[in-house]
Amino acid sequence: MAHKIGVVGDKGSVLPFKLFGFDVQYGTDDKTTRRAIEKMAAADYGVIYVTEQCAAMVPETILRYESQLKPAVVLIPNHQGTLGLGKEKIQKNVERAVGQNIL
């Protein structure tokens, strides 16, 4: 069984993901972003891509799902570029897994 994939972010950044069949939700502020992530998590999504800009608005929500196997919350840059949050999260996970930052 394939899990659903969702994307949360500003319209310009996430609309193209509809072409791939992903469920797209617009995060325009902290309230709509949090609601979209929690709705997808409750609906048993396997992966939720969240733009770094939206993730920065709801750090406590992102942190809550970080220790869970599902859904995997993956931070992605928006169409204007990256804030470096996704790379920072990957580095922390690698460091936790191998005991040092190898990236």
Which consecutive residue ranges, at least 5 long each, have pLDDT under 50? none
Q: What is the residue-averaged pLDDT?
A: 83
Shape estimate: globular
The tally of structural domains comes to: 1
CATH-assigned homologous superfamily = ATPase, V1 complex, subunit F
* Rg from alpha-carbon coordinates: 13 Å
CATH architectural type: 3-Layer(aba) Sandwich
Q: Can you walk me through this structure?
A:
This protein has 103 residues and is of the alpha/beta class. It has one domain: 3-Layer(aba) Sandwich (Rossmann fold). It is 44% helix and 18% strand. It contains 5 helices and 4 strands, in the order βαβαβααβα. The chain has helices spanning 11-14, 30-42, 52-57, 59-66, 85-98, and strands spanning 5-9, 23-26, 47-51, 72-76. A 4-stranded parallel beta sheet has the order 2-1-3-4. Helix 1 links the parallel strand 1 and strand 2. It is globular and about 30 Å long.
Main features:
18% strand, single chain, alpha/beta, globular, 4 strands, 103 residues, Rossmann fold, 4-stranded parallel beta sheet
Secondary structure: elements and pairs:
Blueprint lengths: L4 E5 L1 H4 L8 E4 L3 H13 L4 E5 H6 L1 H8 L5 E5 L8 H14 L5
Parallel strand pairs: 1-2, 1-3, 3-4
State the gist of this model:
The protein has 103 residues and is an alpha/beta fold. The protein has five helices and four strands, in the order E-H-E-H-E-H-H-E-H.
